[in-house]
Write a structure and sequence with these properties.
The chain is α/β, with parallel strands linked by helices. Helices cover about 50% and strands about 10% of the residues. The model has no long low-confidence stretch (mean pLDDT about 90).
């Protein structure tokens, strides 16, 4: 085949996906036109996916699974697509998000950056672009990460939204992500959220020192049955904890942190002063 392009499946997850589509297709003796007819996409689209020039999508993955008879299997293309989409997420985080969407109360503590549920799209994109520049994720994964965050934020807008209590270390406000053009609307977003009836935002000032109980980000979710799920992460991985013996001390420490933090009114004044450039 004169125009057959040599594939390099080791070059990226998308390339590996495309190489597997080609392998499945050729094992059945199908041309790209044959597969196109089976899945309802053009042969040009099939070629672009196989060679990694076009990233796969969920609808495409489901159609090739149907065509190849791999739907629901351990090696389905839908499962591979989900692995690609969330490949830049820490282990355990996807499980946590499943609980987050059902929580009736969300308690967050963050150090260094604004919590994801409060990030503006520009702030989130700037953080993701930084990871791309460092080579830790691809541009495609960066776009998926921002889109995924948007989905999480949208899931909180419902008939009975959860109560969200946020304590941010003061470093979150002083870590300049993207400069003034990004930080000014981000700080305004914090002020607006604090005005909502289901949000409480507090700043833990530098001055509390050793009285700050957490040195890593912590998320605590109260579910409809009043059980509590905890999620904490390091640089390398995240962990979901459901055992009461482990979760209750974290919840107690969170309450202690809230007592040490500024009130919401004082926190909003601090945020407003930073937004306006006041000392």
């Amino acid at each position: 085949m004169v125009n057959r392009k040599e594939l390099k499946p080791e070059s990226s997850p998308e390339a590996a996906y495309g190489a597997r589509v080609r392998r499945f297709r050729e094992e059945r003796g199908w041309s790209q036109e044959d597969l196109a007819g089976e899945v309802g996409y053009s042969s040009q689209h099939i070629s672009a996916v196989e060679t990694g020039r076009k990233p796969p999508t969920l609808p495409f993955s489901r159609r090739v699974d149907h065509a190849f008879g791999s739907a629901g299997s351990a090696d389905s293309f839908e499962r591979e697509w989900r692995d690609i989409r969330h490949g830049s997420l820490l282990e355990g985080f996807q499980e946590y998000v499943g609980y987050e969407g059902r929580a009736v109360e969300i308690r967050l503590f963050e150090i260094g950056i604004v919590p994801g549920l409060l990030q503006t799209p520009e702030y989130a994109r700037t953080l993701a672009d930084g990871d791309v520049q460092r080579g830790s994720i691809t541009p495609e994964q960066a776009a998926e990460r921002v889109a995924f965050l948007s989905e999480r934020q949208a899931a909180l807008v419902r008939h009975r939204p959860p109560m969200v209590l946020v304590v941010m270390d003061e470093s979150c406000l002083h870590h300049a992500v993207g400069g003034v053009d990004v930080m000014t609307p981000q700080l305004q977003r914090l002020v607006e959220a604090a005005a909502l009836p289901n949000w409480v935002i507090q700043v833990a000032p530098f001055g509390i020192g050793a009285r700050r109980p957490f040195n890593l980000p912590v998320n605590l979710l109260t579910l409809a049955d009043r059980s509590v799920v905890a999620y904490a992460e390091s640089q390398a991985q995240g962990h979901v904890e459901r055992e009461t013996s482990s979760v209750v001390p974290m919840l107690t420490a969170y309450h202690q942190l809230q007592a040490e933090a500024h009130s919401q009114a004082t926190s909003v004044v601090m945020i407003e002063q930073l937004r306006k450039g006041s000392p």
